[in-house]
Amino acid sequence: MYDEAGSLQRIQVLKYLVLTTMLMGSDINPFDSQETKPYKNDPRIAAMTDLVDAYQRDDIHGYERILQSNRDLLADPFIAENIDEVTRNMRTKAVVKLVAPYTRFTLAFISQRLRISLPEVQDIVSFLIVDGRLRARIDQQRGTVEVESTPDLARVQAVRAWTAAVSSLWATVLNEGDGFKPEDGAVAASYPDLEPGASGDPRPALRSLKSGGGQQFGALRGGPPPRGKGAKVPR
């Protein structure tokens, strides 16, 4: 393709190839192939060569310096239309790399280190949060960002899972089992050291009284016995 095109057309195609490589975020050097390698040191494409080299090395300052020193690149309408997206991707990668060691930082800190405006810094950080690449909260009044640490997130998720499991077990016991008897709970509170079924455990007797006879259970409670058929009410 390069040999079939004229000299100027080959240079133009190579510029677009370099631009496309950066737009795709590819790590492949476009000048590694046999067809393009002879043009790597061509002065007409040197700016684009340096630009893609800085992009692939994540050298934000080198990238910005090359772009500022070669404003003639923007004379091409296609490059001018798409280079802003490349610059945005470059700055986004730089923000991710810069804030990686921190759990708290200011927007001004990023602005000063990367030499970009505060509104763009906030826009990039907001995008990273929405995209899930940065777990953090922005305090716009103070201009600070607090990053949620991974151990804290894992702990919160574990507690939520444990709570859901306990709730499910509780629902199963109440809906499918016999549940908890109030007498058992009261006796357990009164005799915390008493093993169930041990000698002196009053719980079996209480269950027997409750299910074995109304009169006995009523007498135990101190109330009147239930009325039988033909029973007279004392006056």
Descriptive account of the structure:
By secondary structure, this protein is mainly α. It has 4 domains: 1-97, no CATH class; 101-148, Orthogonal Bundle (Arc Repressor Mutant, subunit A), CATH 1.10.10.10; 150-179, no CATH class; 180-221, no CATH class. It is built from 10 helices and 3 strands. It has helices at 7-23, 46-56, 60-69, 77-99, 107-114, 118-130, 150-176, 182-190, 203-212, 214-221; strands at 104-106, 136-139, 144-147. It has a 3-stranded antiparallel sheet. Strand 2 (136-139) and strand 3 form a beta hairpin. Helix 1 packs parallel to helix 4 (77-99) and helix 2 (46-56) runs antiparallel to helix 3 (60-69). It starts with 6 loop residues before the first helix and ends in a 14-residue tail after the last helix. The model is unreliable at 1-5, 213-222 and 231-235 (pLDDT under 50).
